[in-house]
Amino acid sequence: MKILALSGSLRAASINSAVLRALRVLAPASIEVYLFTGLGDLPLYNPDLESSPPSVAAQLRREVASADALLIASPEYAHGVTGTIKNALDWLVAFEGFADKPVAVLNATPRAHHADAALRETLITMSAKLIEAASITLPLPSANIGDADLLAMPEIVSLLTGVIVEIERAAMKPYLNSSLYIDNQHPAVVAQAAKLADGCADEEEIAKRCFEFVRDEIKHGWDYRLNPVTCKASEVLIHGNGFCYAKSHLLAALLRANGIPAGLCYQRLTIDGDQPPYCLHGLNAVYLQQYGWYRIDARGNKPGVAADFCPPLEKLAFPIVNPLEQDLPGIRAEPPPAVVKVLTEHQTIEQVYNNLPDVDLQNHTV
Ligand SMILES: Cc1cc2nc3c(=O)[nH]c(=O)nc-3n(C[C@H](O)[C@H](O)[C@H](O)COP(=O)(O)O)c2cc1C
Prior knowledge:
Largest sheet: 5 strands, parallel
InterPro entries: Flavoprotein-like_sf, FMN_Rdtase-like_dom, Papain-like_cys_pep_sf, Transglutaminase-like
Protein name: NAD(P)H-dependent oxidoreductase
Keywords: Flavoprotein, FMN
Organism: Methylomonas rapida
Strand order of the largest sheet: 2-1-3-6-7
Number of domains: 2
Distance between the termini: 23 Å
Pfam families: FMN_red, Transglut_core
Shape: globular
Structural class: alpha/beta
CATH topology of the largest domain: C8orf32 fold
Radius of gyration: 23 Å
CATH class of the largest domain: Alpha Beta
Bound molecules: flavin mononucleotide
Number of strands: 15
């Protein structure tokens, strides 16, 4: 999991930056805390540059899009937020990848409350999901304090460790949800998930068993030419077949039913051989405490395809070989509309095969 940390102070000896660096030290190996240090290089926000933002703004947006959560620590200047953090947020106001992002706000100056309140108001207006349990005021003296001083304060270490736990909890929540297509509360899914977990020593063993069940016991609808077309996880389980997208819904549901966060990933691949046309291929990412996000592909093995579960080594079904093929960024909690559409609006597997969705390369959207 990745937490993008933003400090609203450009000062070399900034307490806010020191807090974020201390947090990076305290995070477990499965959580990367990435401190973006380019906020001082951002030009003042100008809406005219929305369609072609300067490279540092584009870089900030990429980091935001790929982060599971954001963590902001920023001082108060004259009862307001600093221009540094407000300018950075202005560059993110119209950015789609920011909406619904879980965000925590740390206040390192107990006497300052105007900036903290203003920052929260701005973030809520920008449709961020404020993580209240991780948004705390740290009882720090106002004297200059460095990372090492912070890490030597047991109370601060305990508070910052709690912040990481709460951010992780909030960031993983959508990946444990039961929904229309990942219906992990369906009785058949619950029963199968319990059967797979029976006798397992830990979450890694449960995840491996769920993966192998979907890879080996659920047939790929096109490989085996099997109807009906399935979409919901429960349908895939009951009928025992599905296209890659549908199988990924079932694997996500079985993992979530076992309390293991799981999401959906997509690749853009050629449909057959190494020639166009292209289509989306659906797979999964599972969140393992020891390793963080780990991608797995349970579409089903066949000659030339040997996907496996061997964390942290990734062993997917298909490598990216052609220049227009790609691993699409991001881990989705829910299937994109194009995937739901193809699986719910067609009655036969031939119709699905002839209408496989592709990515909009210009907008990088599915
Ligand atoms: C220009 C300026 C204005 C400030 N205004 C306030 C203020 O309104 N309220 C407050 O509590 N502290 C104020 N401070 C103090 C800072 O919040 C404090 O020094 C904080 O530690 C700075 O964060 P940093 O160490 O991360 O740079 C101000 C500091 C500066 C430099």
